[in-house]
Specification:
The complex is a heterodimer.
Chain A (H helix, E strand, L loop, with lengths): L1 H9 L4 H9 L2 H16 L14 H17 L9 H13 L7 H14 L2 H12 L5 E4 L15 E5 L4 E5 L7 E2 L10 E10 L2 E11 L12 E5 L12 E5 L2 E4 L9 E2 L5 E2 L8 H32 L18 H36 L5 H29 L12 H9 L8 H14 L1
Parallel strand pairs in A: 1-5, 2-5
Antiparallel strand pairs in A: 2-3, 3-9, 4-8, 5-6, 7-8, 10-11
Helix pairs in contact in A: 2-3, 3-5, 4-5, 6-7, 8-9, 8-10, 8-11, 9-10, 10-11, 10-12
Chain B lengths: L1 H5 L29 H29 L2 H7 L1 H25 L4 H21 L1 H5 L6 H18 L3 H6 L5 H4 L10 H9 L11 H12 L1
Helix pairs in contact in B: 2-3, 2-4, 4-5, 5-7
Chain lengths: 439, 215
């Protein structure tokens, strides 16, 4: 297209050098190219038709097929670098949708790694990593969300049988929303109020089998299913889950930090803030994801504004590229500036998280509260401003921005979910405020 | 805020600005000479002022009601404080990162982006910057002028800047945003995949529209 080619000739810098500066070096860019080439070379990693033309069932089937093929080829990437190679590999294959193993990798496995004692780690980690089971993370309830203290699901210890009885006492206690809970997962980390010897010790994580490993039918005492179609993420079976006095062995409670002994004695965790680490890391990934989606929206709108001609500034001088209108520049360029700002912040938070994790091993937790507070605030401000920015980019493309061909509806639905999951934004801001007031 | 007010604040890097003395006025003279340090200083001033305003509002409510209800009654001011704290962090990190760009041809457009980002944020929350005459009307006008000049300077690099994000068409998944810009033929081709185009005549015609037109 002559107009977009003219734009590229007008640029005053080397695009590859800028990309290296953005992603952290030539080696990173090289790896992106290798991953892209690999994905393009494997038809089983592609969509038979564009997903926007599929029914929900077709999308779920397509996502399940692709996630198996994707994880069959994990050796193609450095799977420990989820922040970099993992996210890129997944976005190329799975696009802007979740899949049956979304929470298995991002929540189920990290929780097993972070919250189990050595014996439990041996029992569950290799099974989860080898995909022998599919796990999710069930914390949010129908009537309760970010305020964990009021979760209603209970786990009551029975010393006679050395079991925990998991129960959903009311409809509002039903677990609701977890990705892949409805139809795919056969295990879940369930967060429940722990009762032992008649005393409630607050929310604790438990690993619970949901379905028969052969037939995949729900276990007796468990009601589980899909919560229905949503604004986005429709390749994912976000689910509901209700327990009817469902019994699990004592070792079902994850016991690295707090324990319940065979006679029911409760051992409290040494430092309650230790769980913050994974939260900060998950948020750095979220912030990078939001920055990437905002940049994608700005990329689409700016490229289209370069080739779309509409109206004349000087009468008779011919229609102009709409990117020449100051108002169009003002709609789009600040969004691109934000995308850069958010991306650099995501890398900075990830680096600080690495520093804190290293300090933690020497017992130094000074930086942890400040980073935890900051990451809550960043998650809130970035997800909100990214969603607004994506919508502004969509509107700047006129009618075509409303068509699924533009990808804007998909980008917005994928990104705006970040305003509520991982903590409702206003609650996140008030968490930051609590820290600021103390400071 | 409490520790700072009581004089024994142990603050790590991120919140250090809370303990700094207030500034009477912004040092903004012109958008071309508005330095990284002056930009950060002005955001620190506004964030600090909002945090202590929220603190004073909270303290006032705590004198009248329970701690929890006081927190609820101050929560809008508290959210504004958190947002300013986060925006300060975003501006500072952006400026610090761009300053590390060794290549001048990269640093120039990136600096324009940092200015556009900061000026846009200042203008969006202009009331906070004008409060107490911290910024004068003419300084605020100078900031706005800076936005328009940055847009002008960035215009030639707009497409190259988005290209720098290294989005392959497969990842972008957008007919409108295709790298080659050949959008209109591609839109027509994309439309052919619609399920409705599998047959020339839909069953709905025989069932409803045809009979209607024959009535």
């Amino acid at each position: 297209n002559p107009d977009i080619t003219k734009e590229r000739h007008a640029g005053t810098f080397d695009v590859r050098k800028m990309a290296c500066f953005l992603y952290g070096g030539e080696d990173k860019l090289q790896r992106r190219a290798e991953i892209l080439e690999f994905v393009k070379s494997k038809p089983e990693l592609h969509d038979p038709i564009p997903v926007e033309f599929m029914t929900r069932e077709e999308r779920i089937d397509n996502a399940a097929r692709k996630i198996v093929a994707m994880t069959d080829n994990l050796e193609q990437i450095d799977a420990s670098d989820f922040f970099g190679e993992g996210m890129y590999y997944q976005s190329l294959i799975m696009g802007r949708d979740l899949h049956p193993l979304s929470l298995h990798f991002v929540m189920f496995i990290p929780t097993i790694q972070g919250q189990t004692d050595d014996e439990q780690l041996d029992e569950w980690l290799s099974l989860a990593i080898s995909r022998g089971i599919i796990g999710t993370y069930a914390q949010t309830e129908l009537g309760h969300g970010t305020n964990l203290k009021n979760l209603e699901t209970t786990a009551t210890y029975d010393p006679k049988t050395e079991e925990f009885i998991i129960n959903s006492p009311t409809i509002t206690s039903a677990k609701w929303w977890p990705g892949a809970l409805g139809k795919s997962s056969n295990y879940a980390i369930v967060v429940a109020q722990l009762y032992t010897k008649g005393v409630c010790h607050g929310p604790h994580p438990f690993i619970v089998q949901l379905r028969d490993l052969e037939t995949h039918k729900p276990m007796k005492g468990i009601r589980v299913g899909d919560i229905g179609p949503k604004f986005g993420f429709n390749s994912s079976d976000n689910g509901f889950l209700l327990f009817d006095n469902y019994r699990i062995p004592r070792q079902g409670m994850l016991m690295r930090y707090s324990k319940v002994e065979r006679d029911g004695t409760y051992i409290a965790p040494k430092h309650s803030k230790l769980g913050y680490g994974t939260m900060v890391f998950v948020r750095s990934i979220m912030i990078k994801d939001q920055a990437t989606q905002l940049a994608a929206a700005a990329c689409i709108a700016i490229r289209y504004s370069a080739i779309r001609r509409q109206g004349e500034i000087e009468q008779g001088a011919g229609e102009v590229q709409i990117l020449d209108y100051q108002t169009q520049q003002f709609r789009l360029m600040p969004q691109l500036a934000r995308a850069f700002a958010f991306m650099f912040a995501a890398y900075e938070i990830r680096d600080m998280y690495m520093k804190v994790t290293e300090q933690l091993t020497h017992g130094n937790v000074d930086l942890l509260p400040e980073i935890h507070a900051l990451s809550s605030g960043l998650k809130s401000v970035v997800s909100w401003e990214a969603a607004q920015g994506i919508e502004q980019c969509r509107l700047a493309c006129g009618g075509h921005g409303y068509s699924l061909a533009s990808a804007f509806p998909e980008i917005y639905a994928y990104s705006v979910g970040g305003c509520t999951y991982e903590g409702e934004n206003i609650v996140m801001l008030l968490q930051v405020a609590r820290f600021l007031m103390k400071a | 805020a409490k520790e700072v007010r009581s004089g024994n604040a142990k603050l790590a890097a991120i919140c250090g600005y809370l303990a700094k003395p207030d500034l009477a006025h912004s040092k903004f003279a012109a958008w071309q000479t508005y330095s990284d340090a002056n930009i950060v200083q002005d955001f620190e001033h506004v964030a600090r002022r909002q945090i202590f305003r929220a603190y004073d509002v909270l303290m006032r409510h705590q004198r009248e009601t329970s701690t929890e209800e006081a927190w609820n009654r101050a929560s809008i001011e508290l959210c504004k404080a958190s947002r300013m704290h986060v925006r300060l962090y975003l501006v500072r990190t952006f400026l610090e990162k761009v300053a590390t760009a060794a290549d001048a041809s990269l640093r120039s457009p990136l600096t324009d982006l940092t200015r556009l980002y900061a000026f846009d944020l200042i203008t969006a929350s202009q009331g906070e910057f004008l409060k107490g005459d911290f910024m004068s009307d003419s300084q605020a006008d100078g900031i706005r002028d800076g936005i328009y000049r940055c847009l002008e300077r960035l215009r030639p690099n707009a497409v190259s800047l988005v290209d720098s994000w290294d989005f392959d068409d497969a990842e972008l998944h957008s007919v409108l945003g295709r790298r080659d810009g050949n959008v209109y033929p591609a839109l027509l081709e994309w439309a052919q995949k619609s399920q409705l185009n599998k047959t020339e005549v839909l069953p709905t015609f025989e069932k409803y529209l045809g009979p209607m037109m024959k009535e």
